[in-house]
Write a structure and sequence with these properties.
- The complex is a heterotrimer of chains A (about 300), B (about 230) and C (about 100).
- With about 300 residues, chain A is an alpha/beta fold.
- Chain A has a domain of about 180 residues: 2-enoyl-CoA Hydratase, Chain A, domain 1 (Alpha-Beta Complex).
- Helices cover about 40% and strands about 10% of the residues of chain A.
- Chain A is built from eleven helices and seven strands.
- The radius of gyration of chain A is 19 Å and the shape is globular.
- With about 230 residues, chain B is α/β, with parallel strands linked by helices.
- Helices cover about 45% and strands about 20% of the residues of chain B.
- Chain B contains ten helices and eight strands.
- The relative contact order of chain B is 0.11.
- Chain C has a single domain, classed as Ribosomal Protein S5, domain 2 (2-Layer Sandwich).
- In chain C, helix 1 runs parallel beside helix 2.
- Classes of the chains: A alpha/beta (about 300), B alpha/beta (about 230), C alpha+beta (about 100).
- Chains A and C meet through loops of A and strand 3 and strand 5 of C.
C-alpha cells in the first residue's frame, strides 16, 4: 500500500502522470508546440506554453482514455481562447476515437477574465461538445480535487458530465464566496470563514446532496480508482432522465426551504449528527448518503 | 426594448406569453409557425427558481409539442449571488437548463437565442449560448465585467485595458465584440419578424461559432486549435 | 514584461531527448522548458518574465547554472511570474535532472 499522495498538491501535469498507467500518456499540443494565448502578452501578463491545460490520450487500467487537466496555479485555471479550444477539441476527438471515458481534472475559477468574452463563449462550446460525447455513449468523468475548486463556467460544465468525483478538499459551485460577499455583504457569505465555505460548496456537502457521485480522500490513487470504476459507465441524457432530474431539483427547493446553513440541510435530510460531518472520513460518508439521499435517475 | 414591445413587434397579439416573476413564457404564432417563447426580464438574476422555471418550459415543449421551435429571450444581470443558491448547488440548476435545451435540439427542436436587453456575467451561458445560434438586438449590452472592475481584479491599468480593447474584442464589454468572436451570430436590424424567420431557417445542429470567429477575425485561434486536437 | 536572452558556452550535449517541462506559471513561480537545439557548443536561454529590471540577476543565475551543468545543444525557455533566484535555480536544476544523463529527481 503506497502512502497517500495528495491530489490537491500535484500540478495538472503530475496528476495526469499519476492517474494514467505508467508511460502511456501521449500529450496533444504539448508545451513544445507553444500554442499559447495571443492575448496575455498584449496585456503584459506571462503566458504558459500549454495555456494552462494538459490534454492527451493514455490508458487507465489498460483501457484507452482521453484526459484533460487544468492547471489551477496558472491564471486560476481560467478558461481562455486556446485553453477552451483544447477542451473542445479533446471532446470532439472523443467522438472519433471512442475512448472508455474522457477524464477532466477540473480546477478553475471559470472564465479567464483577461480573455473574458472568448472564455464565456468557449464554456458554452465545451458544454455542447461534452453533451455530444455524452450522447454518443462515452462517459465524461469530472475529477475535482484541486485547492482552487471548480467554479463559474467549469462548475456548469461539471454538472453536464456523466459523473463527478470530488475529494473533501474540493469545491464545486458557481460564484466564489468573495464575489457574493462583495455583492451582498459579509452577513450573506463570509468568504473568510473557511468552514462555512467548505460546508456550502465542498465535496462532503455536494456528496450528501447527490451533486457529486463519489467522494474520495485527497489521494491520487483514490481518484484513479474512482475513475477506473467509471470507465464505460455511460449515463445518456433522455427526456425521462431530465424529467426526473427536474422533479428532484424542484423537490429540493421545497425540502430545504428555510435552511440557512449546510448543517440545517443535513439535519433536515435526517442525519442524526450533522455537526459531525465535517470531521468524518470520506469512507464513512457513503453509508450516510445511502440512507439519506435521493438520486437522480 | 422591454419584453412586451419585443413580443408585440414579433408576434403582434398572436401569442400567449405571460410574465411570472422574472420569467416570461408562452406560445406565439409567426407566419403560420407556432413557437415556444421562454426567457427572463428585468435584468433577472438567474437563481435556482429562474433556471428551473425556464427548464420546465423547454421540457414541456419536448414532451408535448414535437418539432416546435423554441426562442430563448435573454435579459439577465448574471447568476444570482446568494449563499442559499450556492448551498442548493445553483450550477446544477443552470446546467440542467442547458441540458434541457440541448436535449430539445437533439429531439428535433430548433433553438434560437436572442439577447434583447442585457446578458451579463455567466447569466446566459446555459440559455442563449446553448441555442443553435444566439442573436442580439443592436442596443443589447453583453459583457462579462466592466473595465474598471476588471482593472481592479486583474491589477492591469484601466488605460491599458481601454487601449487594447480598441483593437482586440477578447475581453471588453460590447455586443459588437461578441459578434466579432462568433458568439453572437448577428444583430437584428430592420424587421424583427424577418430576422426571426431567417434565424429559424438558418438554424442547424453544428456549433459553428469558432469558425465564425475565425472568419470574422475576432477569434483567430479557437477553430484552428480545436481542429488540431481532433486531427493530432 | 521583459524578454531576456543568453547564449552560454557548454560542453555536455545530452543525447536526443523529448522536450521536458518543469514548473508552473503561477505567482512567484516559473515554468522551464528544455529542448534540443542544433547548436552543439552552447546552451541558450530565452526568458519571458513579468518582473522588469532584473537582467543582471537572471544573468548571474543562468551563468551559475551553466557553470554547474555546462549544457550544450539545449535551448531553455522560461515563462516567469516573479520567482526568486532560488526558485529559478531549483527549476533549472529540476529540468536538467530530467534530461537523459541527469540525476533522478
Amino acid at each position: 500500500m503506497n502512502a497517500p499522495l495528495s491530489f490537491a498538491e500535484l500540478s495538472a501535469r503530475q496528476r495526469v502522470q499519476h492517474l494514467l498507467d505508467a508511460g502511456t500518456f501521449t500529450e496533444i499540443l504539448g508545451p513544445a508546440q507553444r500554442v499559447v494565448s495571443p492575448h496575455l502578452a498584449l496585456l503584459g501578463v506571462p503566458y504558459a506554453f500549454d495555456d494552462g491545460v494538459v490534454i492527451g490520450s493514455g490508458m487507465l487500467q489498460g483501457q484507452p482514455v482521453l484526459i484533460a487537466a487544468q492547471e489551477g496555479e496558472f491564471m486560476g485555471g481560467g478558461v481562455g481562447e486556446v485553453h477552451g479550444a483544447k477542451l473542445v477539441g479533446l471532446l470532439r476527438r472523443a467522438l472519433l476515437v471512442r475512448p472508455a471515458a474522457v477524464l477532466v481534472c477540473a480546477e478553475s475559477g471559470g472564465v479567464r477574465l483577461h480573455e473574458a468574452n472568448a472564455g464565456l463563449i468557449a464554456v458554452s462550446e465545451v458544454m455542447r461538445a461534452l453533451l455530444d460525447v455524452r450522447a454518443a455513449g462515452i462517459p465524461v468523468v469530472m475529477l475535482i480535487g484541486g485547492a482552487n475548486g471548480c467554479f463559474g463556467g467549469m462548475g456548469l460544465i461539471a454538472r453536464c458530465a456523466d459523473h463527478v468525483v470530488m475529494s473533501d478538499q474540493a469545491r464545486m459551485s458557481m460564484s466564489g464566496p468573495e464575489v457574493i460577499e462583495s455583492s451582498h455583504g459579509v452577513e450573506e457569505f463570509d468568504s473568510r470563514d473557511r468552514a462555512l465555505v467548505w460546508r456550502t460548496t465542498g465535496g462532503k456537502h455536494r456528496f450528501l446532496m447527490g451533486d457529486c457521485d463519489r467522494l474520495v480522500e485527497d489521494d491520487v490513487a483514490a481518484f484513479r480508482q474512482a475513475a477506473a470504476a467509471l470507465l464505460g459507465v455511460s449515463r445518456a441524457l433522455t427526456l425521462d432522465g431530465l424529467l426526473a432530474e427536474h422533479q428532484l431539483l424542484t423537490q429540493r427547493i421545497a425540502r430545504f426551504e428555510g435552511c440557512s446553513d449546510a448543517v440545517d440541510v443535513w439535519s433536515r435530510m435526517g442525519l442524526e449528527h450533522p455537526e459531525q460531518v465535517t470531521d468524518m472520513e470520506a469512507a464513512q460518508m457513503q453509508s450516510l448518503r445511502n440512507e439519506h439521499v435521493q438520486e437522480a435517475v | 426594448m422591454n419584453w412586451q414591445s419585443l413580443v408585440q413587434a414579433l408576434f403582434g397579439d398572436a401569442h400567449t406569453i405571460e410574465r411570472s416573476g422574472d420569467v416570461i413564457s408562452g406560445a406565439a404564432q409567426l407566419r403560420g409557425q407556432t413557437l415556444t417563447v421562454v426567457g427572463t426580464t428585468d435584468h433577472a438574476a438567474i437563481g435556482v427558481e429562474t433556471a428551473l422555471a425556464q427548464a420546465k418550459v423547454v421540457l414541456d415543449t419536448v414532451q408535448n409539442h414535437p418539432g416546435r421551435a423554441i426562442v430563448l429571450l435573454v435579459d439577465t444581470q448574471g447568476q444570482r449571488l446568494r449563499h442559499r443558491d450556492e448551498l442548493l448547488c445553483i450550477n446544477r440548476y443552470m446546467a440542467h437548463l442547458g441540458c434541457c435545451v440541448d436535449l430539445a435540439r437533439r429531439s428535433g427542436h430548433r433553438i434560437i437565442g436572442l439577447v434583447y436587453d442585457q446578458a451579463l456575467s455567466g447569466g446566459f451561458i446555459t440559455s442563449g449560448l446553448m441555442a443553435d445560434a444566439c442573436y442580439a438586438l443592436p442596443e443589447a449590452e453583453i459583457r462579462v465585467m466592466r473595465l474598471p472592475a476588471m482593472s481592479r481584479v486583474t491589477k492591469i491599468n484601466e488605460d491599458v485595458l481601454e487601449a487594447l480593447s480598441q483593437s482586440n474584442p477578447v475581453f471588453a464589454p460590447g455586443v459588437a465584440n461578441y459578434v466579432a468572436m462568433g458568439g453572437i451570430q448577428s444583430l437584428w436590424n430592420g424587421d424583427l419578424r424577418d430576422c426571426m424567420l431567417q434565424a429559424l431557417s438558418d438554424s442547424n445542429l453544428r456549433d459553428q461559432r469558432a469558425d465564425l470567429g475565425a472568419a470574422r477575425g475576432g477569434r483567430r485561434l479557437a477553430a484552428k486549435v480545436a481542429q488540431q486536437v481532433v486531427s493530432a | 514584461m521583459e524578454h531576456l536572452t543568453f547564449e552560454l558556452v557548454g560542453h555536455r550535449a545530452p543525447p536526443n531527448f523529448d522536450a521536458v517541462l518543469v514548473g508552473v506559471v503561477g505567482s512567484g513561480n516559473l515554468e522551464v522548458l528544455m529542448e534540443r537545439s542544433t547548436d552543439p557548443a552552447h546552451c541558450t536561454f530565452s526568458i519571458h518574465t513579468s518582473a522588469r529590471g532584473f537582467g543582471p540577476i537572471w544573468e548571474a543565475v543562468v551563468q551559475n547554472f551553466q557553470a554547474q551543468h555546462s549544457l550544450a545543444g539545449v535551448a531553455v525557455s522560461i515563462n516567469d511570474m516573479g520567482a526568486t533566484p532560488a526558485v529559478v535555480s531549483l527549476r533549472l536544476d529540476q529540468a536538467a535532472a530530467s534530461l537523459p544523463g541527469g540525476e533522478a529527481a
